[in-house]
């Protein structure tokens, strides 16, 4: 049952991802037609710089007026790959109003204000698909929304930012410092000229918000996600991790509380054991663990960014949305029925690895141990060693048992006030055990 | 938009998987209702032994007449977890005729005669979903059918049978022999009393047929899959693998030919480098690599069998099928438009690791090398060593470059005929490099 009127697609943005989407739509037109059940036609491409030569794209399709394009009324699907909050949000909601479904790769917008988009899609009976927004080509949104729809997800734990993973991998394997590793990432194109969104964890936090919302069938916004970047991770942290049989990764962690009544979402660097599969995720790759009540532990691994992988995810969504359109149906919309509250970071139960510079004299360990006890934090191991320079200072490395983050940070605050504690060299959470 | 008339589900089979499906349908009824948009109700359970006590299932639902159950006419979805070819095939097609969509975990039937099922579903406008048929809870069918629908899959390479992976893992890590490892697998419940389907590779071959068909949008039947089991893998093979920096895994490999005009599907033990992520898949876990033109290399990992994981996959499909039913739509059906032929094993391009027992005298290596050259097989490395017992024999280990499997097996046949070759101790393919 093949119909001949083509489905019309408008492309908003024609950068690295958009141009690859347009290219594959042309080179694989026959495959797409067979898989959808109707041809798809690129009906317009909105760009900022119309003069730029774009190989393989008919110049007549190029426009700078994205709003007019999404308002045309004959567009079946809008692919939004411009990113950012505005004008993306206005364009997407306008597209819904004028009859189009939307495929988006816009993690920032979905994390900031996914509800507006979901509600607009629902109101007008359109699809909103966004596999490409999290972890590039790795199928993750669809498995969570659909494959695990009959299960209860308890935890999502993953490396969802390739830039920071590349930097930490270089610090680990080449012993590079943070700045040096960042420079290498920039030179190789893994980091942008302004790397803030990546290294400060904003990108990963947006993805954590999206994943948590879908995994737990609730609403989680970017502001709900505790966020720490990797700019303060040092070579010494990597060395300490090695001594523990660990490495350091920037993790996005979404958890359902043990009582099931709340959830948490956070992004921060953490030590994980070398035996954990995430420890061996190298360079700019992404990998995400999903723990579900019936399914057990699943892992999804692949390239988390880049033009081609992201285009693959966009085109998979395009096929689904077009098929829905032909069937007169829509795919799964927002599922936020649990309305679970998002608890603050202080409620998260985790472990700390703390390096202290202390005075090298008797009684210090007892003093330090007392502070932990007063805050209800139980100590797992302590390593104490005098400095090689014999300067009257020693270093103390404490690894705690699991405790609420608030108790742990309260402990650190109190430790800083001790006369015998000269400084807190590093604090890092330990995960994945 | 919540409707109150429940969707009616018939369960065929109430063993390890079926009982877990029934249990979760009861304990998580509210979640399923919210995610589907209507309640689902277990309307009948067909079993062979009706007298058996089944906790949590209303005895009034139990029947031995599966045919009458699927013919009732008020059933929305039939879940088939009885396995085997008949009566499963007849029950599924009858279910389609009488108005039901089907969720199945039946890999043997899908590999043997998926076409009959697909065609019946299509003819009656029903859904046929079967995520649980391959790799248990690991979302694999849906990512291949939907997430990668806009991409071109070139290769699927995976560990899809937990029993054999457990056995090979034990042989590798504990130095156990095959029989000993099989006994342990049986004792722990990883192997069935009659382990033939697993250890001879039939189970993995069925999964390879299903995966190849979906990945390449063509039809691949069980008979098209080259199949070798693990019963002839020895401790010596594992030891040889270790010397090469490899381990031995039973792999399912589906490949598109370099010219894109044919495909191959095969299951056999193979050496893979320890650095390959599949090498570290332990115990009864499954993992599958998918290589696609745009997406690059993706990996999916998780528990490949067991009641709960399989039930998770079944219930994910149940939610999707129920949602389709409510929308008056169907999900993706068979996509076999490429009609790519399946080439025989002889056309597969791979590498061999061959251990020969040879006479310990000059000229043997030259003779052996000549045989390889005559068959157009280029040698990568040769290791030659005299036996410790000085009995006039030596062993020769040859690793080839990539060559067609027919040339490789022709070489081995010719080697066997050489006077100086006393025996071929082992032949194993080398993959994943």
UniProtKB/TrEMBL annotation, chains A, B:
Domain named ACT: residues: 353-429
Residues that, per the record, bind NADP(+): 12-19
UniProt enzyme class: oxidoreductase
Keyword set, alphabetical order: Amino-acid biosynthesis, Metal-binding, Methionine biosynthesis, NAD, NADP, Oxidoreductase, Sodium, Threonine biosynthesis
Cofactor: a metal cation
Residues that hold NADPH according to the record: 107
Pathway annotation from the record: Amino-acid biosynthesis; L-methionine biosynthesis via de novo pathway; L-homoserine from L-aspartate: step 3/3; Amino-acid biosynthesis; L-threonine biosynthesis; L-threonine from L-aspartate: step 3/5
Residues at the active site: 207
Catalytic activity: L-homoserine + NADP(+) = L-aspartate 4-semialdehyde + NADPH + H(+); L-homoserine + NAD(+) = L-aspartate 4-semialdehyde + NADH + H(+)
Coiled coil: none
Residues at which L-homoserine binds: 192
GO molecular function, one term: metal ion binding
Enzyme Commission code: 1.1.1.3
InterPro entries: ACT-like_dom_sf (IPR045865), ACT_dom (IPR002912), Asp/hSer_DH_NAD-bd (IPR005106), HDH (IPR016204), HDH_cat (IPR001342), HDH_CS (IPR019811), NAD(P)-bd_dom_sf (IPR036291)
GO biological process terms, semicolon-separated: methionine biosynthetic process; threonine biosynthetic process
Family the entry assigns: Belongs to the homoserine dehydrogenase family.
Function, as annotated: Catalyzes the conversion of L-aspartate-beta-semialdehyde (L-Asa) to L-homoserine (L-Hse), the third step in the biosynthesis of threonine and methionine from aspartate.
NCBIfam families: PRK06349.1
Designated name of the protein: Homoserine dehydrogenase
Organism: Streptomyces paludis
């Amino acid at each position: 049952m093949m119909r001949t009127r083509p489905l019309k697609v408008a492309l908003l943005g024609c950068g690295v991802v958009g141009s690859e989407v347009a290219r594959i739509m042309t080179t694989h037109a026959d495959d797409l037609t067979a898989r959808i059940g109707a041809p798809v036609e690129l009906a317009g491409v909105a760009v900022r710089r119309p003069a730029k030569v774009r190989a393989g794209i008919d110049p007549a399709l190029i426009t700078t007026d994205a709003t007019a394009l999404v308002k045309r009324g004959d567009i079946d699907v809008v692919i939004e790959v411009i990113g950012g909050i505005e004008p993306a949000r206005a364009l997407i909601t306008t597209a819904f109003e004028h009859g189009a479904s939307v495929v988006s790769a816009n993690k920032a917008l979905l994390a900031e204000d996914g509800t507006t988009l979901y509600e607009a899609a629902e109101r007008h009976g359109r699809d909103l698909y966004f596999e490409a927004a999290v972890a590039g080509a790795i199928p993750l949104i669809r498995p969570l929304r659909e494959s695990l729809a009959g299960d209860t997800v308890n935890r999502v734990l993953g490396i969802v930012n390739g830039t920071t993973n590349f930097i930490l991998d270089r610090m680990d394997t080449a012993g590079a410092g943070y700045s040096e590793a960042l420079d290498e990432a920039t030179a190789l194109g893994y980091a942008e000229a302004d790397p803030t969104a990546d290294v400060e964890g904003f990108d990963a936090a947006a993805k954590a918000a999206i994943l948590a919302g879908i995994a737990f069938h609730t609403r989680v916004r970017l502001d709900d996600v505790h966020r720490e970047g990797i700019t303060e991770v040092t070579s010494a942290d990597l060395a300490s991790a090695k001594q523990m049989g660990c490495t350091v990764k920037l993790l996005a962690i979404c958890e359902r509380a043990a009582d099931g009544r709340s959830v948490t979402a956070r992004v921060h660097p953490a030590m994980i054991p070398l035996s954990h599969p995430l420890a061996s995720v190298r360079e700019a790759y992404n990998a995400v663990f999903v723990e579900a009540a019936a399914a057990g532990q699943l892992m999804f691994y692949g390239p988390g960014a880049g033009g081609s992988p992201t285009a693959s995810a966009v085109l998979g969504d395009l096929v689904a949305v077009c098929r829905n359109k032909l069937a007169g149906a829509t795919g799964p919309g927002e599922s936020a029925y649990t309305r679970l509250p998002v608890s603050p970071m202080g409620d998260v139960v985790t472990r700390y690895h703390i390096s202290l510079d202390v005075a090298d004299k008797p009684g210090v360990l007892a003093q330090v141990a007392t502070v932990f006890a007063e805050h209800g934090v139980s100590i797992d191991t302590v390593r104490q060693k005098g400095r090689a320079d014999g300067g009257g200072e020693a270093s103390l490395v404490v690894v705690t048992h699991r405790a609420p983050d608030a108790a742990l940070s309260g402990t650190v605050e109190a430790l800083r006030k001790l006369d015998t504690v000269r400084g807190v060299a590093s604090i890092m959470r330990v995960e994945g055990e």
